[in-house]
Amino acid sequence: MPDEPIVERPEGSKDDAEKDDPKKDFKYIRWDATGVVAHLTLNRPKQNIMNIEMLREMARAINGLSRREDVRLILLDAAPECEGYFSLGVGAEGYTQQMVFQMMDAFHSVLHAMMEIAKPVLAVVEGIASGAGAELAAFCDLVVATENAQFRQPEIKLGVFPPLGAVVYPRVIGPRRAMELLLTGDAISAVQAQQMGLVNRVVPREKLKETVEALVKRISEQSGPVLTLLKRVMFEGTWRPFQEALKRAQDLYLNQLFELQDSQEGLRALIEKRKPVWKNR
């Protein structure tokens, strides 16, 4: 994964950086917010399957930047130990009726942290980004992917749908492409993702480090507060009324989707490692 460029921090920011950097007790992520680029690395080898604790760590790390005007950018990537995977999304337990609300709440806390902090977020995707992993990348402001990257939203094949993806993708890649992506559950390549507008740049693996470093350097040279304000304005213009749409998606997901027999059948089939048999009810 790419190293952060060396950029001089504003005078007097060191104490704040040390105070707001809670990396010492993280278990599932690596977090370095000591410079102008905050580096968040998903670190649950090998597939970076998200659990509630991991998601809460991510939200806590990002929220810790609330007083850091010197931080220009958040860089999100996967640990080298997770080679071949950005993230396979949430585990099977996250789809059960007993855990779905807690898992969704934890996942949304990460997105709300990204919204509130209003720092541009650059995702570096190498390998597979599936389910919530793909949604997380889609929610970021910039995405650089390697040629072997792959994006998947397979939920429809399990008798469910991604509530965040149903809100995010129409805004990012357009409603028709979003419908095809979510209705088929088919994986898309990095090149296809770039053509759709989901990815900014696709590069060979050997060019990833220099590409990300150059982009990070260009952005981190700008004014931190201006970058924050720019993101807020662009977010408002792109996503409003996002909260209402997300709330509606969550309501349908929790209160109607999980009443369907097919959604329960999809989960059983996942756990039993077999093909689901739909009853269409």
Outline the structure in words.
The structure is a single chain. This protein has 281 residues and is an alpha/beta fold. It has a domain at 14-206: 2-enoyl-CoA Hydratase, Chain A, domain 1 (Alpha-Beta Complex), CATH 3.90.226.10. The chain is 45% helix and 14% strand. The protein has eleven helices and ten strands. Strand 1 (29-32) and strand 2 form a beta hairpin. Helix 2 (52-63) packs parallel to helix 3 (100-117), helix 4 (132-139) packs across helix 5 and helix 5 runs antiparallel to helix 6 (175-184).
SSE order, as H and E?
A: HEEHEEHEEHEEHHEHEHHHH
Helix amount, in percent? 40-55%
Main sheet specs:
6 strands, mixed
Beta fraction: 5-15%
What's the total count of β strands?
A: 10
In the CATH scheme, the class of the domain at 14-206 would be: Alpha Beta
Strand order of the largest sheet: 1-2-3-5-7-10
Count of DSSP-assigned helices: 11
Q: Give the N-to-C terminal Cα separation.
A: 46 Å
Radius of gyration: 19 Å
Low-confidence sequence ranges: 1-22
CATH superfamily of the domain at 14-206: 2-enoyl-CoA Hydratase, Chain A, domain 1
Derived structural class: alpha/beta
Please give the CATH architecture of the domain at 14-206: Alpha-Beta Complex
CATH topology of the domain at 14-206: 2-enoyl-CoA Hydratase, Chain A, domain 1
Q: What's the overall geometry?
A: globular
The overall pLDDT average reads 89
Jot down its keywords.
six-stranded mixed β-sheet, four-stranded mixed β-sheet, alpha/beta, single chain, 11 helices
Layout: helices, strands, pairs:
Elements: H1 14-19, E1 29-32, E2 37-42, H2 52-63, E3 73-78, E4 85-87, H3 100-117, E5 121-125, E6 128-130, H4 132-139, E7 142-146, E8 150-152, H5 163-173, H6 175-184, E9 188-189, H7 190-196, E10 201-203, H8 208-220, H9 224-239, H10 242-255, H11 261-272
Parallel strand pairs: 2-3, 3-5, 4-6, 5-7, 6-8, 7-10
Antiparallel strand pairs: 1-2, 8-9
Helix pairs in contact: 2-3, 4-5, 5-6, 5-10
